[in-house]
Amino acid sequence: MREEERRRLRADLHDGIGPSLAGTAHQLDTLARRIDDPDLAGCVRSLRDRLRTTVADLRTVVHGLRPAILDQLGLPGALRELLAGYDTPACRSSIDGACHSLPAAVEVAAYAIAGEAVANAIRHSAASRLELTARMEDTVLILSIRDNGCGIPPRHRAGVGLRSMRERAAEIGGRLEVTSAPGSGTLARAGLPVGDRR
User: Fold this and answer.
1) 92-110 as b/e, with b when 16 or more CB fall inside 10 Å?
2) What pLDDT does 50 receive?
3) 133 in Cβ contact with 117 (< 8 Å)
4) How far apart are alpha carbons 1 and 39 in whole angstroms?
5) Of 35, 99, 106, 109, which residue is most buried, by most CB within 10 angstroms?
6) Mean pLDDT to the nearest integer, 134-155
7) How far apart, in whole angstroms, are the C-alpha atoms of residue 122 and residue 188?
8) 161 class by beta-carbon count within 10 Å (0-12 exposed, 13-18 middle, 19+ buried)
9) Would you say 48 and 27 are in contact if contact means Cβ atoms under 8 Å apart?
10) How far apart are the first and last CA of the chain?
11) What pLDDT does residue 67 have?
């Protein structure tokens, strides 16, 4: 419910208030150029600059509410984009068509988990292949990120990234399992309940 409200709030701020404030700053800029009195024109430019700073602050707030890419591309497109541009490892994705129109909290959690798992694999695994899959099983989104790299060392302590992925899954009633064997790669698999979709 909280992520649904964030999605709505982000759209309202991004599509309504933000453009309105930016338009007002533009009008103030035009007004300042037309004023003959240098002191008054300076005051108007000062107001314009303060308004532009407010617009920049608003953009920061908007981007913090929800990853913009989810609204631009949807979850399937955002997941594919995580893999774009890599030659090594060779990246592949398989995303079920049923992964569209999920609850906002599930989209945000899935994107954050996938982003962290992909980043970990690219930074640490020395893998030549990486595969991201997302599919629906009844009312659960199954998200898997598998690499064929060096695996997680046996005495490795879980860092912030692994804890964050587990917390993201748990926040929405899901689970994250990470399995790894030295030389056999790593699999991060999340099961994220999406609720009744009827």
Assistant:
1) ebebeeebeebbbbbbbbb
2) 85
3) no
4) 50
5) 109
6) 90
7) 13
8) middle
9) no
10) 17
11) 83
Nearby residues of 91 by Cβ (< 8 Å), 6 or more positions away: 83, 129, 130, 131, 132
| Best CA proximity match to 114, nearest among 139, 83, 148, 89 | 83
Following DSSP, what letter does each residue of 72-130 receive, concatenated? HHHHHHHHHHHHTT-TTTEEEEEE-GGGSS--HHHHHHHHHHHHHHHHHHHHHS--SEE
Phi, psi for residue 19 in degrees, rounded to 5: -60, -35
Looking at the chain, how many residues does it have?
A: 198
Q: Is 148 in contact with 127 (CB distance < 8 Å)?
A: yes
pLDDT tens string 48-65: 888 888 877 777 776 666
24 within 8 A of 51, measured Cβ to Cβ: yes
Tracing tokens 């709505």 back to the chain, one arrives at: 8
Contacts of 159 (CB under 8 A, 6+ apart): none
Of 114, 87, 101, 98, give the one whose Cα is nearest residue 176.
114
Encode pLDDT of 20-45 as tens digits: 777 788 788 888 888 888 888 888 88
Angle, helices 104-124 vs 160-171, to 10°: value is 160
Count other C-beta atoms under 10 Å from residue 129's C-beta: 16
